[in-house]
């Protein structure tokens, strides 16, 4: 999988390098600050692509003594680095836009610039859609983040084309720095979103979509021995997940039988995740008499209370550190 991720990101790097050079050619021809802004943003595509290559290589290294959970967290650094670079580029673009409001330049060859920017926008659209699709299939944060950035470049290029068309047909050169300022604001927003995602991952913020997916898998395939699951925590390392939880089992199970239940739960979740690996650290709790009313064990010789119904597992009763039914 790592080899495929590297191939995808190398394609992104090469295409971004070519498109960036093309945009700077359009700027030299037109002297448009809006085109310069678009070209400056594209430089970030190249720098971020190079950093992404390294982060994918590092994330694919096996666990070692110093990194017992693997190296997958570097992907959050990757998207954080990309977000920071995008944010800086947005600030520079806004600065140049304000500067050109007061010191305008003469625009040239707008029609040629339109064709060039249109071509680069089409190229980025194809590249961005490819990266987002591959990032989803490979569950790669780095590729998905890179694809999101490329798509932002497409949107900004679309706005730039509209601005150049207005300038071409009306001669309103003040539209040029205005378009640059709007692009800068859009780029700042995208940079903030990537930085926010990076910080969330590095701070181990819970991804509730992943939690809901794990709970749904366990709920659908729950075994009668699994009396309840609680105190669940999910951490993401690249496209791998580490899950801690407490599992309540009948207290009279033999150690070998209890171990088989843990293996069955881990295998169930891993088989349901199409990419990446899910590592479980499961703490076993023995059942108490208060568990009897929702325990599904048939013909239990030590049951002290009648069975009243199954408790449906949801994040509300799986995440807290208490057995179901406890206050």
TrEMBL record:
Q: Where is the Cation efflux protein transmembrane domain?
A: 9-203
Q: Which UniProt keywords apply?
A: Membrane, Transmembrane, Transmembrane helix, Transport
Question: Which GO BP terms sit in this record?
Answer: intracellular zinc ion homeostasis
Query: Does the record bear Transmembrane in its keywords?
Result: yes
Gene Ontology MF: a single term: zinc efflux antiporter activity
What Pfam families does this protein's entry cite?
Answer: Cation_efflux, ZT_dimer
In terms of InterPro entries, this protein maps to: Cation_efflux, Cation_efflux_CTD, Cation_efflux_CTD_sf, Cation_efflux_TM, Cation_efflux_TMD_sf, CDF_Transporter
Q: Which domain of life is it from?
A: Bacteria
- Transmembrane residues, as ranges? 7-30, 42-60, 81-102, 114-133, 154-172
Where does it live in the cell?
Membrane
A single GO cellular-component term on record = plasma membrane
Q: Which residues form the Cation efflux protein cytoplasmic domain?
A: 210-287
Query: What family does the database annotate?
Result: Belongs to the cation diffusion facilitator (CDF) transporter (TC 2.A.4) family.
**Protein name, UniProt field:** Cation transporter
